[in-house]
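note to self — DONT lose this again. spent like an hour looking for the file last time. sequence + predicted structure for the chain T wanted, 294 res
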Amino acid sequence: MRPARLGVGVVSAGRVGSVLGAALTRAGHSVVAASGISAASVERAERLLPGVPLLPPDEVVTAADLVLLAVPDDTLPGLVSGLAATKTWRPGQIVIHTSGAHGVAVLDPAAEAGALPLALHPVMTFTGREEDLQRMAACTIGVTAAPEDEAAWNVGEALTVEMGGEPVRVPESARPLYHAALAHGANNLVTLVADCLQLLGGAGIANAERMLGPLLSAALDNALRHGDRALTGPVARGDVGTVRKHLEVLADAAPEIEPCYTALARRTAARATAAGLLGAGAAAEITELLEGPK
């Protein structure tokens, strides 16, 4: 199913909303209105959604056939119910939110007014710049619709393909764990890399980014291809002496990072053991070291 040409309203013109609005425009739809208050949102709308009027959210919804709610997770429920209280939703509208944490239940007030609810969550980070449109070609989008509404699933998948993404169905019941998994990987990866750069900088290593780039890229590629079989390093090998030295130097030079190293090393030891990479004796010795004195 290919949705007909639609008038799109974007609430709001943040990094995600502005890029998806531009992607829908590129697919042949027309962004008829957007909301944006901050200077950054106004500038972004002028750049990615040229000529689109900036209006209050209720006026954006009134003007649109397809409403794109690209607002923070915690803002979404109040926005949807507030628009329902003012009878802004209308039958026949398509209402899409981009939150990873919510399914379509959060859109129930709009659905009760006759709108078609969808959740489309792009699995990528956004800069709010033109290059995001190119990155959409390699982007997976988590699609959620009402369980028995096959037409809604098809509309969500068709819109995803039109924007250049690859649709993957995510059932309503799976959304919390789905989002936790993505946040655990993407958000904590940034923290982990920043910690590595901090440690290398503290050691006086120049061009740390260039050093880490190939190493971490290879590690990520191997992990995606081979799972636990890609585990390497002193924990997976059972090199207790090396791990002990790591703990000592981190406790002295970066005590704020040492607990994270320890927690991840314990998890690495558990996975390496389960995968048969780390023998029982070595696993017990490593675990005893990482758990510290009882």
